[in-house]
Design brief:
Elements: E1 13-16, E2 36-39, E3 56-59, E4 65-66, E5 78-81, E6 87-88, E7 101-104, E8 111-112, E9 126-130, H1 134-139, E10 148-152, E11 163-165, E12 171-173
Parallel strand pairs: 1-2, 2-3, 3-5, 4-6, 5-7, 6-8, 7-9, 9-10
Antiparallel strand pairs: 11-12
């Protein structure tokens, strides 16, 4: 419902799956301990504005347009944007005055509608982007206003190594 988690004072983390089709405007009102939101949905007008304890937002790789509002989340410090993100709608992160670390995994800088980062101190913030996209972000409107743009390292590749030690101390890597 429109007030599904209204006043849940013990709620500290929220994951919104990509199958969710709507969330009421007051669904998380009064949830003053939410520190992290992981968001995978592609629907309009979700409000997370003013969550005073929110420190980190992760936008999943399935999201292409971000409508959800995280405006005035004064303690939001870290933001991760997914690979498929193409558009961020107006005012989404406006007033997030502690935002100082943004990781964008998109190879092409997402289009930013007006005031996406209004009142965010971009000049002192760091933007991490894919290695191949650093130049594009450095030239893109608003993205270029970040004080530091860093080529992020690619996701680590995990390799399995099987090691056997014989009774005689011989080491074999398989």
């Amino acid at each position: 419902g429109s007030c599904a988690f209204y006043g849940c004072k013990g709620l500290t983390s929220v994951t919104i799956g990509n199958s969710v089709t709507s969330i009421g405007s007051q669904a998380f009102y009064g949830c003053n301990k939410i520190a992290e939101i992981e968001y995978h949905a592609n629907y309009q007008y979700t409000g997370f504005s003013g969550l005073s304890s929110l420190e980190e937002v992760i936008i999943g790789d399935s999201v292409t347009t971000l409508y959800a509002s995280f405006s005035n989340c004064k303690n939001l410090a870290k933001l991760t944007l997914g690979k498929s993100l193409q558009y961020i709608r107006q005012d989404v992160f406006s007033g997030c005055s502690s935002l100082n670390e943004v990781h964008s995994r998109a190879e092409i800088p997402p289009y930013l509608y007006p005031n996406v980062f209004k009142d965010v101190p971009l000049a002192s913030a760091t933007l991490y982007v894919p290695m191949s996209a650093k130049g594009a972000y450095a030239e893109a409107t608003t993205w270029k206003d970040f004080g530091t743009i860093v080529s992020d390292t690619p996701d680590p590749v995990m390799h399995k190594i099987h090691i056997e030690v014989s009774d005689y101390g011989k080491v074999s890597y398989l």
